[in-house]
Design brief:
Blueprint (H helix, E strand, L loop, with lengths): L6 E4 L6 H13 E2 L2 E3 L3 E5 L2 H18 L2 E3 L2 E4 L17 H14 L2 H4 L12 H19 L5 H10 L3 H24 L4 H10 L8 E5 L6 H9 L4 E5 L17 H5 L10 E4 L2 H15 L8 E5 L5 H10 L4 E3 L9 H15 L2 H9 L3 H4 L4 H15 L17 H14 L8 H16 L5 H16 L14 H9 L16 E5 L10 E5 L18 H7 L4 H17 L3 E7 L19 H12 L37 E3 L3 H6 L1 H9 L14 H16 L3 H4 L4 H16 L9 H26 L3 E5 L10 E7 L2 E7 L3 E5 L4 E8 L7 H5 E2 L2 E2 L3 H12 L8 E8 L9 E4 L3 H19 L28 E3 L2 E3 L1
Parallel strand pairs: 1-8, 3-5, 4-6, 4-7, 7-8, 9-14, 10-12, 10-13, 11-12, 13-14, 15-18, 20-23
Antiparallel strand pairs: 2-3, 16-19, 17-18, 19-20, 21-22, 23-24, 25-26
Helix pairs in contact: 1-2, 3-5, 3-7, 6-7, 11-12, 13-14, 13-20, 16-17, 18-19, 18-20, 26-28, 28-29
């Protein structure tokens, strides 16, 4: 017998829909001191509305002293399975995705090419799985509207698109193969089962069904309601005079709403400039509402959810708590993030994943690690080896240098040992929970437990995975992706807080019952939402098939806005002109669903220039003026012990900035992290220095060879020895490129060195290869009658026997050849004293030097260009060198007198910029109660 559909009742929109629904349920079902709703199914758009309905029912029953039996409160997606009895168990989502991927693989290649002309390789399981997920979503969307791939094919054939028809014919073949795979496994596709139940008229129920707020029902649900129409009632939150705006199922009629006029008072629309102005405007409105409403009677709706974090930061600044349902997702939780990086490290052994595990806050306690020491060594290890991957046992071989780090690596490897080899998905369903249990066995945090429940539930479903779909072992990374990646976007409900303001998404607003409401960012593209790009179902084809399209979205959102503005007296719509990047925005077209004269006035008002909102000082909190700025650089402390030993390389640091000298050499501060992905300038220079030091200590026939080939072969061999620990099969490409650059510079060095040897120069001294303090040279240096000690290392000393000339050289590896005179002096001012002070050290390095020899100072440049790879000498006479000595004495006096203040402060970026408050409002150092900026 034909049914005209469920009963339709209009419940008005002069008050929020949920309180009205509760009153109707009480009036209809309360009897003999009971409110028995056990035989009622209430269908709502979302779970939050369901929870709120349950709360309001409990309150109403308590106030009326009724014994409540709650209804079955569900969403639209759960309704179909309440109305028929499945003949087979349903395949879960993972099984469906794998079956779709298998189906695509099994259809003939010529057919598959019509849909996927460039398919993945046969062994790229994850890429096939992605294709399977895509077709599964397409199948679900169509089946919800009682359509199959064959129906779409017929439609595009009618529209005269033969190539599209061929593509949909191929998709239909894949769908048939997918259903055959599931049938052979004894499983049922949920969407197909619903359509079969509708076709065979198997839909039935003994319970009352009440639908509320569902204004865009899928066709499959409508067909089911037709078969139980006598049991179904649709409550439409609108007045009866608007009946023409809704069909017999209470769903919006797009044509009616497209031409509808929305009566929005101008006083309730506030145009603002951008997100900051919107936050301040909202704060003012909340201040007004606080005089009449409690916090739980005010709601904030956001049409653009990307602005929520900024809004929450603003609310925190004014000491107002907020509660945002979409604030936390399973993918953001600590267990999910830890298992994700652990799976990657177990499968791929990437250094970045190992570092992320070691820094994870839950690792320390459970694996009994001391992460502060291990992380410090981690940075040092990374800077030394620049690893892309971390082979098992590699750190154990370096335990003498990195003991805590090696121990941490051993314990992490032991924890991840079960995940170190490929396994079947069903086996991963056992391994992943074991890994989580070892870390979170004793956890009591709600957020952690909620995340773990969701993850374990998803993993449990893998236990029933059909064996034919689980025949190939997978790495931990691939298994994690297949089993758990779909959970990343699943919301974790934040804890309830009576002092917090609720922040709601646009779709949740129509059924919210707060008497005061603010809606933020009512802009085009957000309301109505933009159509997602779909290569299979463009909007024009969606219209032809009568599935969700732009007109339906517009009608749904126009109705939602109508409900908001009619169901409460206090509300405000905020419409910003620009987004957070400063890009222009348009008002929602819903604001222009009005008479022409109103439309023109609104457009002019929105687009006219206006100053930004000024923040209200009172909102920031009043306070007494501070006695002094909080932005003050920490003052240096007097030295506990006056130094007597001075490195010749450190004078440059003091001359550049006494305060930075203090931080670096007195307080021993340095920035160390593991952000390096290639050798920095210092590491690259040190590598070349080690090779050249070895060359300087080679036998005379090599270090003083006149053959470029002999020199080059020695250098390349020593370079290979030096980088053996850095290079393996997993080394970064950029590191290999840098080593090629090192080879090039050493080859250019070999050319020039051979020429220098041919000229008669001999290497008589080279810096020892051992890089510790003991190898440094020392020389006395008299300052004000007191002997100080100069310390330094000389890279190399050459001697020319015929000319009786000594040449003291410092290797430089900058890209362009440095001039030592310019590097040490700026005009008449000394900026570096390293080479001049070598005059005191070199006799200690080569005590056999003749007494009457001339001495030159300079750089041996190892540059990237042949023309810049040469020896450059400084032309300093005795008077100039004496001036350098006096400058050194002045620096020593300053240091020993605790003079570490920069005045004025130098302006440059370095690792101490944060301490020195560079670019932070006003940089100051307190001096005798005053400040110098």
């Amino acid at each position: 017998m034909f049914s005209s559909g469920p009963k339709r009742e209009f419940i008005g929109w002069t008050r929020p829909a949920l309180p009205e629904a509760v009153d109707r349920l009480v009036r209809r079902f309360a009897t003999d001191g009971r409110l028995d709703l056990g035989g009622v199914i209430v269908v709502l758009p979302g779970q939050r509305a369901g929870r709120r309905l349950q709360e309001l029912l409990a309150i109403a029953a308590g106030e009326r002293r009724l014994l409540l039996t709650p209804p079955d409160v569900i969403t639209e997606s759960s309704l179909p399975e309440r109305l028929y009895v499945p003949q087979k168990p349903f395949a879960d989502s993972t099984t469906q995705h794998l079956a779709w991927a298998q189906a695509i693989l099994e259809i003939p290649a010529s057919v598959r090419a019509k849909v996927f002309p460039f398919p993945p390789a046969a062994d790229e399981k994850l890429r096939w799985l992605e294709l399977g997920k895509r077709l599964a979503r397409l199948h679900t969307d169509l089946a919800a509207e009682c359509l199959s791939f064959e129906d779409v094919r017929d439609c595009v054939e009618r529209l005269k698109h033969p190539r599209e028809a061929a593509r949909w014919d191929a998709l239909a073949a894949a769908r048939q193969r997918y259903l055959a795979i599931l049938d052979a496994l004894g499983w049922w596709d949920r969407q197909t089962a619903r359509l079969i139940a509708i076709e065979k008229r198997e839909i039935q129920t003994t319970r009352e069904i009440i639908l509320l707020g569902l204004v865009d029902l899928h066709l499959a649900v409508r067909r089911m309601l037709d078969q139980v129409a006598e049991k179904a009632t649709v409550w439409v939150a609108a007045p009866a005079k608007q009946a023409a705006a809704f069909d017999s199922y209470g769903c919006v009629v797009p044509d009616w709403w497209r031409n509808a006029t929305l009566d929005i008072p101008e006083d309730n629309i506030e145009n603002i400039e951008g997100p900051d102005d919107q936050a301040f405007a909202l704060t003012r409105w909340l201040a007004q509402m606080s005089r009449r409403f409690c916090k739980d009677e005010v709601a904030i709706g956001v049409a653009d959810e990307s602005l929520v974090p900024q809004l929450q930061r603003h609310m925190t600044q004014i000491e107002q708590k907020t509660r945002w349902v979409g604030e936390q997702h399973v993918g953001d939780s600590r267990p999910f993030r830890l298992l994700s990086i652990a799976a990657r490290f177990a499968a791929e052994r990437r250094y970045a994943d190992f570092a992320a595990i070691l820094r994870h806050p839950d690792i320390e306690r459970c694996l009994q690690l001391a992460p502060s020491a291990a992380v410090g060594q981690l940075d040092q290890f990374q800077n030394a080896f620049l690893p892309a991957r971390l082979a098992p046992g590699f750190l154990a071989r370096l335990s003498d240098s990195y003991p805590e780090l090696a121990q941490a690596a051993q314990r992490i490897d032991r924890w991840l040992e079960p995940a170190s080899r490929p396994l079947l998905l069903r086996k991963w369903a056992e391994v992943f929970p074991q890994l989580l249990a070892e870390i979170y066995r004793e956890s009591t945090e709600n957020e952690v437990l909620d995340s773990l429940r969701a993850m374990v539930q998803a993993l449990d479903s893998l236990q029933s995975l059909p064996e034919p779909l689980d025949v190939r072992p997978l790495s931990a990374t691939d298994a994690f992706y297949i089993a758990l990646s779909s959970l990343a976007g699943v919301e974790l409900a934040p804890p309830l807080d009576p002092d917090a303001l609720e922040i709601l998404g646009w779709l949740e607003l129509p059924l919210d019952d707060a008497p005061a409401l603010a809606v933020l960012s009512l802009n085009e593209g957000k309301v109505p939402s933009a159509t997602p790009v779909d290569s299979f179902l463009p909007d024009s084809l969606r219209c032809e098939l009568s599935i969700e399209h732009n007109d339906r979205r517009y009608a749904r959102d126009a109705y939602a806005l109508s409900v908001l503005i009619h169901s409460r007296a206090d509300w405000r719509l905020f419409v910003p002109r620009r987004d957070g990047k400063g890009d222009p925005l348009q008002p929602s077209r819903l604001l222009f669903a009005c008479p022409d004269e109103t439309m023109i006035a609104r457009a002019r008002k929105f687009f006219q220039e206006r100053p930004p909102c000024a923040p209200l000082p009172a909102l920031l909190g009043a306070s007494e003026p501070l006695p002094q700025s909080l932005f003050v650089v920490p003052q240096p402390e007097p030295l506990a012990k006056k130094p007597t030993h001075f490195s010749v390389t450190r004078f440059k640091d003091y001359l550049a900035s006494p305060y930075r000298y203090y931080l670096k050499h007195v307080k021993k501060l340095q920035a160390v992290d593991d952000s390096l992905r290639e050798m920095d300038g210092l590491s690259f220079g040190n590598l070349l220095h080690r090779v050249l030091s070895a060359f300087g200590h080679a036998p005379p026939e090599i270090r003083n060879a006149t053959s470029e080939k002999t020199i080059r072969e020695f250098l390349m061999e020593r370079l290979s020895d030096s980088v053996r620990a850095l290079l393996d099969d997993s080394s970064r490409a950029v590191l290999r490129l840098q080593l090629k650059q090192a080879e090039l510079r050493l080859a250019l060095f070999a050319e020039h060195q051979a020429e220098r040897a041919q000229e008669g120069w001999c290497i008589v001294y080279a810096e020892p290869e051992c890089e510790n303090f003991v190898t440094a040279l020392e020389a006395p240096f008299l300052v004000d009658g007191e002997t100080m000690t100069l310390i330094g290392r000389i890279d190399r000393i050459d001697f020319h026997p015929e000319n009786r000339t000594v040449c003291i050289l410092d290797y430089k590896t900058s890209d362009d050849g440095k001039d030592p005179a310019k590097a040490h002096r700026s005009g008449e001012e000394w900026v570096d004293l390293q080479l001049p002070l070598y005059m005191h050290l070199w006799p200690k390095a080569w005590p056999e030097a003749p007494d009457d020899c001339a001495v030159h100072l300079g750089y041996f440049n190892l540059s990237k260009a042949r023309s810049d790879t040469l020896v450059r000498l400084a032309d300093w006479d005795r008077q100039t060198l004496a001036a350098a000595d006096e400058k050194a004495r002045w620096v020593i006096r300053q240091i020993r007198s605790d003079m570490f203040t920069d005045s004025p402060a130098p302006r440059f970026e370095d690792e101490f910029a944060a301490i020195c408050l560079e670019n932070v409002m006003r940089s100051t150092i307190a001096v005798d109660g005053e400040t110098d900026s």
